[in-house]
Amino acid sequence: MGLPPAVHGRGYATEAAQRVLELCFDTLGAHRVFAQLDARNDASARLCERLGMRQEALLRETEIFKGEWSDTAVYAILEQEFRAAAEA
User: Fold this and answer.
1) How far apart (Å, rounded) are the C-alpha atoms in residues 10 and 74?
2) Strand partners, 65
3) Where are the alpha helices (DSSP H) in the chain?
4) What pLDDT does 3 receive?
5) Of 36, 41, 61, 73, which is most buried with the most CB atoms under 10 A?
6) pLDDT at 1
7) ∠ CA 74-12-59 to the nearest 5 degrees?
8) What pLDDT sits at residue 71?
9) How far apart are CA 78 and CA 22, in angstroms?
10) What sign does the dihedral 15-19-20-25 (CA atoms) show?
């Protein structure tokens, strides 16, 4: 589920995802947070990269979506990376 097209490009997804990372690291005490996404979803990949996450894996043909096999990309960020980015 994503945001309506009328609000794309306004930074809402980035801001919301940043708050989720803050919740994970500041409140829940997470050491590492990762995201799994359809590798064809360029917008989600760019969002992960804006958040300072790096692609750690590309899992080939993991799911059937709309009748065809799709790959899964895995992005992650460690707490220390998140903290360093916040201080920069």
Assistant:
1) 25
2) 68
3) 12-22, 42-50, 79-87
4) 67
5) 73
6) 57
7) 10
8) 98
9) 12
10) positive
